[in-house]
Amino acid sequence: MDTHSEGKKLSENEIKEAFSKYDADGSLDLDQFELSSAISNLFNPQPSTTQIMSRMKKVPKDETSRPNHLTLNQFNHLVREIDWEASDSFDFDEDVFELTLAKEKLGFRVKSVEKLGLIVVSKIVDSDLNGVLSPDDVLIAINGAPLGFITDHKVLRKKVKGLKRPVKVTFSRNHEHTLQNNTLSMSFDAGTFTGNTSISYSSLSLTG
Fold first, then answer.
1. Long-range contacts of range 44-48, CB-CB < 8 Å, 24 or more positions apart?
2. What does the alpha-carbon distance between residue 142 and residue 20 come to, in Å, rounded to a whole number?
3. How far apart are CA 91 and CA 55, in angstroms?
4. Are 153 and 136 in contact (CB under 8 A)?
5. Is the pTM of this model over 0.85?
6. What is the rounded distance in angstroms from the CA atom of residue 132 to the CA atom of residue 115?
7. pLDDT at 35
8. Number of H helices, E strands in the chain
9. Which long-range contacts (CB under 8 A, 24 or more apart) does 122-128 make?
C-alpha cells in the first residue's frame, strides 16, 4: 500500500479521530511516544523506530505545542505530507539496540544523570535481561520518539507506565567510566546513527 497516497485521501475526521484516540489526557496534543500507535491506527504495518526518528525531523515547528508533544496540525502534516513507506534515511550504530517489552512492568531501573541530561539504566531487576542490558546503558527513545526534553527518570517512568504494551525502548551502549568522565556526547539527530542492531524480547518477566 502506498501510504503517502493513502494519507492524502484520509478525511479530516479520520485523522482527528486517530489523534484523539491517543490524546489520553484530552490536552489537544499528542505525546510523541504515542505517535507510532496513532500512525498504525491509520496505516499498517506499525512504523519502525528508524522511521519514527527520521520523520520526526520533518515535523514543522509549532510554538503552541508542549515539549515532546504534537499538535493536531503537526500530526496532520505527518499523515498527509510524509511518505511512511520511503526508505529510512539512517540505520542504528552498532552500539544502539532496541528491546520490545510486552509486560506491564519494566525489568530494569533507571536514574537521571543530571550533569549530562541523560537517563541511564541503574539496575537490572529481571534476570532475563542479564547479558542483554547493562547498568549505565543510555535510554535514547521510546516507541521511536527521542526522549528530547525528558531528563528526569521519574517523569519518564510515569509516561511509560501509561503506554500500551508492547513498548519499544531504544538504548545506547555506554560504559561507567564514560559517564564518570563526562565524555559522553549524545545526539538525537537522526543522521548520527549508522549500522543496524535490533533485539526483540516479547516475553520477559518485567518488574520495576
1. 44/1, 47/84, 47/144, 48/88, 48/144
2. 20
3. 13
4. no
5. no
6. 26
7. 87
8. 7, 8
9. 125/207, 125/208, 126/204, 126/205, 126/206, 126/207, 126/208, 128/201, 128/204, 128/205
Q: Which DSSP letter does residue 115 get?
A: T
CB 36 within 8 A of CB 78: no
Contact in structure between 3 and 15 (CB atoms under 8 Å): no
The rounded distance, in Å, linking the Cα atoms of 151 and 113 is 8
Q: What is the pLDDT of residue 16?
A: 92
Tell me whether strands 108-113 and 118-124 are parallel, antiparallel or unpaired.
antiparallel
Residue 170 has what pLDDT?
Answer: 93
Residue 112 is predicted with a pLDDT of 94
Residue 131 identity (one-letter amino acid): G
Q: What is the residue-wise DSSP string for 69-106?
A: EEEHHHHHHHHHHS-TTSPPS----TTEEEEEE-SSS-
Q: CA-to-CA distance for 70 and 87, rounded, in angstroms?
A: 23
Cell numbers representing residue 142 in the block: 521510546
- Give per-10-residue mean pLDDT for the chain (208 aa): 64 91 83 86 78 82 84 90 70 82 88 91 92 93 86 90 88 62 36 33 33
Cell of 201: 524480547
pLDDT for residue 6: 64
Using an 8 Å Cβ cutoff, are 54 and 190 in contact? yes
